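Backbone shapes recur. Consider a single case.
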Amino acid sequence: MSSSDSTSTARTTPGERYVVGVDYGTLSGRAVVVRVSDGRELASATRDYPHAVMDTTLAAGGALLPPEWALQVPADYVQVLKTAVPEAVAKAGINPADVIGIGTDFTACTPLPVLADGTPLNELPEYVERPHAYVKLWKHHAAQGQADRINRLAAERNERWLPRYGGLISSEWEFAKGLQLLEEDPELYNRMDHWVEAADWIVWQLTGSYVRNACTAGYKGILQDGELPSRDFLAALNPDFADFADSKVAHEIGQLGDMAGTLSPEAAAWTGLPQGIAVAVGNVDAHVTAPAAQAVEPGQMLAIMGTSTCHVMNADVLVEVPGMCGVVDGGIVSGLYGYEAGQSGVGDIFAWYVKNQVPGHYHDAADRAGVSVHQYLTDLVSGQPVGAHGLVALDWHSGNRSVLVDHELSGLIIGATLTTRPEEIYRALLEATAFGTRKIVETFNASGVPVKEFIVAGGLLKNQFLMQTYSNILRMPISTIVSEQGPALGAAIHAAVAAGAYPDVRAAGAAMGQVNKNVYVPDVDAADAYDALYAEYSTLHDYFGRGANDVMKRLKGMRREALAGGDLTRSTSAAASTIEERSSSAKGNMHE
């Protein structure tokens, strides 16, 4: 277990009430204890998932996974409840009896197949070595072929729900992943009773009852105006898929901020919290953060920046925004239309580059300087004039979530020469993610949903150069959330509403959330220079992303074909062993 995290020096006050928020991220879950009266965060604790992300091999049996897969083990999520929650409460120094509610949030779309009682199929002995029995993490992109078919058929039939998703359904979402399950492992598909979001499954574990949350149902599950895609449409995709909506997905819907149920005796024993306290309806990590950042009014776009970035905002109008991830009535707060867009890779791209492309002596230098490699690279290049590296990159290393909605796209860096340095490529990647965000903002503006304010939450806030770069490229001031635990605080805010401490999420956010206004403002000269680079980004964006040149898709196809006839993991391992043997032999010869 990784436990970090804050221990509060605040004294608890008699008569105060508290809530717990639990944020389930990509690699760990974090619990935070929050004071209801003002949103003060008293303590937090983190539990790393023991199995992390399975994207090359399956933990049970070691089966190799195809490209674009990303799985998790649901039991890891329960461990967060058993460890991080009681640890955070102990650190806070409060009486657990004063806790009135618990709320959770999750990455999305992260579904899993379960039996009628909620048992995940991977926990059945006969299925433990079957990859499709596990959780499909949000960044499982192996259902792109199924998503393409859904999109083509929906467009041909003029399905009324398609414009609500900007004209394209993502391979990350419930229906594409469910169709992949049917077509690649029909036995498991037929065995499951529910195709359930992890956001709802964890609430099920807390309460003993299954309630779907309105957020994932609307954005990831194609639920619009109370209806799912028709049986006729689904049968046209695959006759055996006809009952997917009715028998695998449809269920009672809980509104955000409502109480899904009360804490069960079993979950009370896990967490050390009082049995019977309110458990809030589940939510998504991005959307739940909005009240914590006081970003719930029309025109306020909130970017939650971490491994990926999710952009959410409210509006009082319903329009189609090309390539958006969805618009849902009440998808963020009741009474407004909630819009979503996003980028599938941001922090993940930076981490990939540092791990795989940066020379070892840079790591050594960063260690000597007492900073991370990320900060070291940033420091090296932050003083360079805009455009001096001669590079422009496309931020599609994990595909494009918005506005192209295509996970067959891949990353690109252009302009490299024999004098290009690692820190310059790193800066180009930082800039590329900012260009991707500008593309999203411009698309919303052009569609009649103006972005009037830009607010940032998430771990990447720590990189001040990155934030200033975003401000320059967007030509907008950037405000920042005060809390370092935005999603967990947002989940706690929803718990306070579910427990009846506030009348609604907007009121709770006004009391418990906090934002620093206009922390970064654009530098006019830098913004002008970035306009020229952004024009080049836009040219590449359309050339490679809108069908003029499908080389990225062809290359992915070649990779899949090559891997189908070989074993990349074992061949790479064998090569590494050979290199090690040669190295050992050379050392032995030198000693002789």
In short: The chain has a mean pLDDT of 94.
